[in-house]
Amino acid sequence: MFENLTDKLQAVFSRLRGRGRLTEQDVNEALREVRLALLEADVNFRVVKEFVQHVREQAVGQEVFESLSGAQTVVRIVHAELTRLLGGADARLNFAPRPPTVIMLCGLQGSGKTTTCGKLAAWMRKQGRHALLVACDTYRPAAIRQLQVLGEQLKVPVYVGNEGTAPPDIAAEAVRHAARNGQDVVIVDTAGRLHIDEAMMSELDMVKQRVSPNEILLVVDAMTGQDSVTFASQFHERLEVSGFVLTKMDGDARGGAALSIRNVTGVPVKFVGMGEKLDSLEAFHPDRMASRILGMGDVMSLIEKAEETFDQKKAVEMERKLRESRFDLNDFLEQMQQVRRMGPLEQVLGMIPGMGNMRNMKVGEHQLARQEAIVRSMTPEERADPSILNGSRKRRIAVGCGQSVQAINQFLNQFETMRQMVRQMMGGQARGKKRRPSLRLPMHH
C-alpha cells in the first residue's frame, strides 16, 4: 500500500532538492503535484485541500525560500502534516481498571472481522494477557466454526452460546465466564452484513448495552477507499466507535482510507493488518506510517520485529561465531529463517531508510528461496565446512536443488565474501567498544 503515492512524493522532493534555493513558485508547483498525488491515492478531497493549505502556510512561515536546506524543510513540514493527518500521537487501547476488558469488534462482511479477532487475541498474548474469543455471529454458521478454528490454532478459548441464544445474552454470559476463569480480555466477534441495516445496528446497540465494552473497534477494509470512510462515519454516528482496525494494508491499494478516516471521523486508527498470518496485526503509529509513506523507512518497527523474532541467546552466540570466524552455512540457514519469520522481505526492507523505493524485492524473495534450496541440498558436514565441496559434490547438490553448478559456485563466493567482510567488521568492533548484536539480513542481491 502507498507504493504509488510514495513514488510520486519522492519524485517531487527529488526535484526540489535538485534546485538548491527554492522560490515561492517552486513550492507552489511541488504542492500542486502533492495535491494530485493525494487525490489519486483516493484521499478525501476536503482532507487534501486542508493538508496542502497547512503545508503552504508553514512553508512560507519557515522561510524556506533562499535557504540551501529549503527542500529538507519542506519534507520535514510534509512529514509533520502527514503525522497529524494520521492521528498525531499513538492511540492506545483502553483497558478496564478491573478485568476483564471487553473489546467489541464490528464491521461489514468481508472486511476481515473474524480473522482480526484471532489476530487481536495473538497480539494480546504478546502483551502478557489472556483472551477469550466470543462467537456472537450466530447468523453465519461458518463464522462460529472459523472462530473455533482460529482458537484451536492459537490455543485460545472460544465461547459459543447455546443454540437459539441471542447474541447480547451470549456476550453477557461470556464476560461472566471470563471473570470466573481468569481471562482478562474478552473479544466479541459480532455479526457482519453486506451493508448497514437497522436490524444489525439494533443488535449491536443491545450487545453494547449488555456488556459496556471498553473498546468498540470497527474493522475496515483499507482497499475499499472512500466507501469505507463513508461507512465508518455512519457506524460511528450510531455506535460511538472508539477506534479503527484497517485490514489488508499490505494489499495493492491506494491508501486513501488510512489517510482520510481519522480526519473525517475524529476517531483514531488503533491497529493495522499487514498480512494474512495471525501475527500480522500491528499497533498503529502515525509518525512511523508517515515515514513509510515518504519512503523514509521505519527503523523502530524493524527493531521491534527483530526483538520479537530473534532469540537473544542465539544472537549473542551468532556474534561470537562471527568474531571467531566460525560462522558456517548452518548458521546462515538459521539466520535466513529468522529473517523470514519477520515477514515478507519486501516489507522488512521497506522499513530500512532508503530501501522503501526498491521495486525488485520479489526478485529478492526468489533469490532467498534459491539460496535456501542450495544449502538444504548439502550434508551437515558440507554446511559446516564448505571447503570440502569438490566438483562431484557440487554436481550432486545441483541435481538436488535444480540449479546449475555455476549458480552454486556464485552463491559460495558470495557467502565467503560476506564472511570475510563481517570478519573485518567484527575485528574492528573487538578492538573498540563491544556493541549490541546487530540485525544482519541474508544476501539478497
Outline the structure in words.
It is a single chain. The chain is of the alpha/beta class. It has three domains: 3-85, Four Helix Bundle (Hemerythrin (Met), subunit A) (Up-down Bundle), CATH 1.20.120.140; 101-290, P-loop containing nucleotide triphosphate hydrolases (Rossmann fold, 3-Layer(aba) Sandwich); 303-431, Signal recognition particle, SRP54 subunit, M-domain (434 Repressor (Amino-terminal Domain)), CATH 1.10.260. The chain has helices spanning 3-17, 24-40, 45-61, 70-85, 113-126, 141-154, 167-181, 198-211, 226-239, 256-265, 286-293, 299-309, 312-323, 329-341, 345-350, 361-376, 380-384, 391-401, 405-431, and strands spanning 101-106, 131-136, 158-160, 185-190, 215-221, 243-247, 269-273, 281-283. The protein has an eight-stranded mixed β-sheet, with helices on both faces. It is flat, with a radius of gyration of 26 Å. 38% of the residues are buried. The model is unreliable at 357-363 and 428-445 (pLDDT under 50).
